[in-house]
Amino acid sequence: MMSATIQKPNYGLAQSRALELLFNAGIGVPPVNPISIAEEILKIPVRFVTFKASESERISGFYDGEDDVIVVNRDEFPLRQTFTIAHELGHKVLHEEWARSSEYQVLLRNPLEQNRDFREKEADAFAANLLMPRFMMDEYYSDLSHSELSRLFAVSVPAIKARLSFLYGI
Ligand SMILES: [Zn+2]
C-alpha cells in the first residue's frame, strides 16, 4: 500500500443527524436532555455506574454495543456527564458498527489521551450540535454571560466557551 488515507471528519453529517434528532424529539428550547433523547427516542438506556478507582480516574463513559446501553461514570461532574452521553449517542447514531468493534475507544476524561480518530471529532461535533444547536445559541448568546449560558444549556462553562468560539468567533 502506498499510503494510508486519512479520513476527515464529516461535520455536516454530525450536525444534520443531531438536528434531525432534536426535530424528531420536538425539542426547540434549552436545556436539551440527552438522557431522555437516548431513552425515549432511541430506546438506549443510560446507566450511571461507579467504576473502580483506577478506571474512574481515567474514564468518562462509553457505549456498550453488546447491551446497547450508554455507561456513564457516576463520579464525574454532572455537566460533563451530559456531554459524555451526547458524545456516545453520536457514536451510536453515526458509527454504530465501529463502536461495536475492537477499534472503538471509551471516552477518556483527559482529552489529550484520547485517540485522534476522525470519529471522535464527529462524536464531539454531534454532541455540541445536540446540546448547543446554533438555532438555540442564536437566541441567547449575545444577552447572557458564560455562566448563565452554562446554566441555561446545562453544559459546562468550557463547553459553552468552545461553542461560542466555534460559532461566532468570540
Ligand atoms: Zn468517543
Protein described:
- The chain is an alpha+beta fold and 170 residues long.
- It is 52% helix and 10% strand.
- It is built from nine helices and four strands; from the N terminus they run H-H-E-H-E-E-H-H-E-H-H-H-H.
- The chain has a four-stranded mixed beta sheet.
- Helix 8 crosses helix 9.
- The longest helix is centred in the middle third of the chain and has 17 residues, at 78-94.
- Bound molecules: zinc ion.
- The site of zinc ion (ZN) has 5 residues, from helix 4 and helix 6.
Please name the defining characteristics of this protein:
single chain; 170 residues; alpha+beta; Arc Repressor Mutant, subunit A; four-stranded mixed β-sheet; binds zinc ion
Determine the mean pLDDT: 94
Let me know the number of strands: 4
Cα distance spanning the termini = 44 Å
Q: Uncertain spans, ≥5 residues at pLDDT below 50?
A: none
Radius of gyration, taken over Cα atoms and rounded to an integer in Å: 16 Å
- The secondary-structure class comes to alpha+beta
CATH architecture: Orthogonal Bundle
In terms of DSSP E residues, the strand content is 5-15%
